[in-house]
Design a protein that fits this description.
Number of strands: 2
Low-confidence stretches: 1-20
Distance between the termini: 30 Å
Radius of gyration: 23 Å
Shape: globular
Helix content: over 70%
Strand order of the largest sheet: 1-2
Mean pLDDT: 82
Largest sheet: 2 strands, antiparallel
Order of helices and strands: HHHHHHHHHHHHHEHEH
Number of domains: 2
Structural class: mainly alpha
C-alpha cells in the first residue's frame, strides 16, 4: 500500500489534482490495480467473498427490516416480520457459506469446481463449521476439481462426461467425505470456540478487538487488510455475533467522513479541488464506502493514513467497548434509521462522531499548509 502510494505521489506532485468529478474514477482505477496485483490463494478467497457479500448484505438488511416490528416480532408466524426473517435469515444467510465455498472453488477450477464447492459449503453449514468451514470446503473442492481435470483423461468419445459427471461426482465425493470425517468437527469446534469467546467479551478485551478491527479497516481502505477485517466480521454476523460488524462499519465510515470535516476545518491545508472532493468523500462516508478516502491517502500517505487509522481505531474500540451491535453488514447511516437494527444506538452514533473528529483533528495537525 505504501509503495503504491509513494509511486502515485510523484504523479500528483506534478500537478494532477483531486476533484469531485474524478473521485469515483480515481477510486475505481486504484481498486482495479489492486485486483490485478492479487494472486494465489488470496485471490481465490476474495473471489468467493465478492460473490458472497451481495447475499449477506441483502439478507442482513432484510433481517434488520424485520426488527422494525420488534426484536422478537418474527417469532409470530404469518406476519410480515416472520416473512422478512425467513427470507433474510432462513434463506440468504443459510446459503451464504455455500456461495462463498462455491466461488472459491470456481476461482480455482473454473466451472468444474462450482458444484463441488457449493455442496461442500452447504455441508459446512449443516455440520455447523460455519464461515471457516466454508473456506476450507471451497479450497478442497477447487483443488480437487482442478486435479481431476488435469489428471484424469477419458477416451475422446466420452470427454463430454467430464464436466457433467466425472468431475462433479468425484470432487463432490472427495470434499464431502473430507468435510464429514476429517475437517468438519475440528473446524466446527474452532468456530464455536471463537463465537463463545467473542460473545463473552467485555471490558478491555472488547475494546482491544474493536481497536484492531478499526486499525485494519483504515489501513488500506478496501485493500487486503481491510477486506480481512470486514470478511471475518461478516462471517461472525452470520453466526449471530453482531458486535464486530458494528465496529467494522463504524471504523469504515470515519476515514472519508474525517477527511470531509478536515477540509472544512483547515481550508488552508487543502486546495480548491480537494475541498470539492472532500464533499464527495463525505457522501461516500455516510454510505460506508471507505474507498472515498483513497485518493487523499495516495497523495499524502504518511500524514493521511495514520490519521485515518487513529480515528477508525477509536471508533472501533468505542463501539465494541459500549457493547454496540448491528444486524446488517452494510448500509452506513441509512441502517441506523431502521428501528432496532442497532443495539445501543446512541453510543454507536457517538463512536462514529468521535472517530470522525479524531481523524479530522489529526489531519488538521499533521497536514502542511498549501504553498501559495
Amino acid at each position: 500500500m505504501l509503495e503504491s502510494a509513494l509511486a502515485s505521489t510523484i504523479v500528483y506532485s506534478s500537478g494532477t489534482k483531486i476533484n469531485e468529478s474524478s473521485l469515483k474514477e480515481q477510486v475505481n482505477e486504484i481498486k482495479s490495480e489492486r485486483k490485478s496485483q492479487v494472486s494465489g490463494m488470496y485471490k481465490h478467497l476474495l473471489t468467493g467473498v465478492s460473490y458472497m457479500l451481495p447475499v449477506v448484505v441483502a439478507g442482513g438488511l432484510l433481517i434488520a427490516l424485520s426488527f422494525v416490528f420488534g426484536i422478537e416480532a418474527f417469532k409470530e408466524e404469518g406476519t410480515l416480520a416472520a416473512a422478512l426473517m425467513s427470507i433474510g435469515g432462513g434463506a440468504a444467510f443459510h446459503i451464504m457459506v455455500a456461495v462463498l465455498a462455491g466461488y472459491i472453488a470456481f476461482s480455482i477450477a473454473d466451472r468444474p469446481g462450482l458444484a463441488p464447492g457449493l455442496i461442500g459449503g452447504m455441508l459446512a453449514s449443516n455440520i455447523e463449521a460455519g464461515f471457516l468451514g466454508g473456506i476450507v470446503a471451497g479450497f478442497i473442492a477447487g483443488y480437487a476439481s482442478k486435479w481431476i481435470v488435469e489428471n484424469i483423461k477419458l477416451p475422446e468419445n466420452f470427454e463430454g462426461l467430464m464436466p457433467v459427471l466425472v468431475v462433479p461426482l468425484l470432487a463432490t465425493l472427495f470434499v464431502g467425505l473430507i468435510m464429514i470425517y476429517i475437517v468438519g468437527e475440528p473446524v466446527s469446534y474452532i468456530n464455536e470456540s471463537l463465537k463463545s469467546f467473542l460473545e463473552g467479551m467485555s471490558g478491555e478485551n472488547a475494546v482491544l478487538v474493536g481497536l484492531l478491527i478499526g486499525l485494519m479497516m483504515a489501513f488500506d481502505m478496501g485493500g487486503p487488510v481491510n477486506k480481512a477485517a470486514y470478511t471475518v466480521s461478516v462471517g461472525l454476523l452470520a453466526t449471530g455475533v453482531t458486535g464486530p460488524i458494528a465496529a467494522a462499519m463504524a471504523a469504515g465510515m470515519t476515514p472519508p467522513l474525517g477527511i470531509f470535516i478536515a477540509t472544512l476545518l483547515a481550508k488552508n491545508k487543502f486546495d480548491a479541488s480537494e475541498h470539492q472532493a472532500g464533499k464527495a468523500a463525505g457522501v461516500l462516508g455516510i454510505c460506508f464506502i471507505t474507498e472515498g478516502a483513497i485518493p487523499f491517502a495516495v497523495k499524502d500517505p504518511f500524514r493521511v493514513i495514520p490519521s485515518l487509522m487513529a480515528g477508525s481505531a477509536v471508533a472501533g474500540a468505542m463501539s465494541m467497548g459500549f457493547g454496540c451491535a448491528l444486524a446488517a453488514p452494510h448500509g452506513g447511516i441509512f441502517v441506523l434509521a431502521i428501528p432496532n437494527a442497532v443495539t445501543n444506538l446512541g453510543m454507536y452514533g457517538l463512536s462514529i462522531v468521535v472517530g470522525t473528529l479524531v481523524t479530522a483533528i489529526a489531519l488538521v495537525i499533521l497536514k502542511k499548509p498549501i504553498q501559495s
